[in-house]
Amino acid sequence: MADGQSFKQIMKNIRIIPRLDIKGPNLVKGIHLEGLRVLGKPEQYAKYYYETGADELIYMDIVASLYGRNSLLNIIEKTAREIFIPLTVGGGLRTIADINNVLRAGADKVAINTAAIRNPAFIKEAANRFGSSTILISIEAIKQSDGLYYAFTDNGREYTGKEVVAWAKEAASFGAGEILLTCVDNEGAGFGYDSNLVRQVSEAVNIPVIACGGAGKPEDLAKVIGEGKADAVCLSSMLHYDYIEHHKVEGDFSAEGNIEFLKSREIFKKIKSTDLKTIKTFLFDAGICCRHELSANLMRAI
Fold it and tell me: Which residue of 69, 196, 241, 264 has the fewest CB atoms within a 10 Å radius of its CB?
């Protein structure tokens, strides 16, 4: 090792987590959680990400708030039969029964937003029932004119009045096991994570923080890990666009919403489509430890 800092970086294993936003039976992607475009079937993407090195997966039912329930049970069951890494499911989980249903379907963790905002004691109830490691609190953060970040629900549409750092500390105190922190301002735009936001939350809580929203190139991941002190990075556009460029997207989507992107395959220019192996090699070369064959070889040599 060159120095103590290098050793510390290698010993802290950063997780790389693809996020799959789902509407009905389809994988979708938008910008700032809006303008959703159909990309294909989530099971196809999930299997590929598992096979190419994803550490975990996150499934978000992004229209669950419209129906008051999570509608992913069938998709979760299909995915759980083919992948063997932790699967987090979020969207529309309002009760202990809701959480129990998605866990029984094959999820390993759940992400809660609206229900926790409305009743923070629900976090404690869920953590006591299923274990803190099972309960993630999803925070959709939007920066205000005064420079502070506030938490929103319903894909960044509903203002809650809760300042993000204070809310993260409260959620941790009630037993949350992790924070999934999405910067709505940056989400899908490709100009990087909000490292300032991530650092504020990471320094305020003693539980892992997953940075989400804004990745456009591998350097963005390295920056939010280094400057933002993220424990894990969640990304979607870079990986989804890479999949579309190199794989045939199977299925008939003619009656399923906005499919213009699938027909044109014109990649958003601010985002560098990249696969997981390339991302992990870049991070390893930058001195950031992640689950990677080179990292495993190095650890055996220590």
Answer: 264
> CA nearest 39: which of 26, 56, 58, 55?
26
Give residue-wise pLDDT tens across range 205-243. Answer: 999 999 999 999 999 999 999 999 999 999 999 999 899
Residue the block writes with tokens 């303008």: 35
Task: Output the six-digit token pair for 40.
Answer: 């294909």
pLDDT digits (tens, 9 = 90+) for 258-278: 455 544 445 555 788 899 999
Strands 109-112 and 15-23: unpaired
What is the pTM for the complete model shown? 0.88
* Residue 112, CB-side half-sphere exposure with 13 Å CA sphere: 34
Structure tokens given for 1: 């090792």
The structure tokens listed for 225 are: 């890990």
The tokens describing 112, both together, are: 């809660």
The residue type at 172: A
**Cα four-point dihedral sign 162, 168, 173, 179:** positive
The span from the CA of 219 to the CA of 210, in Å, is 17
Strands (E), 47-94: 57-61, 87-90
Domain boundaries, the chain: 15-285
Residues designated catalytic: 21, 140
Whole-angstrom distance, CA of residue 107 vs CA of residue 104: 7
Are the C-beta atoms of 175 and 120 separated by less than 8 Å?
no
If DSSP codes are grouped into helix, strand and coil, which group holds residue 244?
helix
Comparing C-alpha atoms, which of 302, 285, 286 is closest to residue 294? 285
**Residue 293's CB: how many other CB atoms inside 10 A?**
12
The domain 15-285: what is its CATH number?
3.20.20.70
**Please, which residues have CB within 8 angstroms of residue 145's CB and are 6 or more apart in sequence?**
none
CA separation for the pair 185, 80 (Å, rounded): 32
Q: Which amino acid is at 78?
A: K
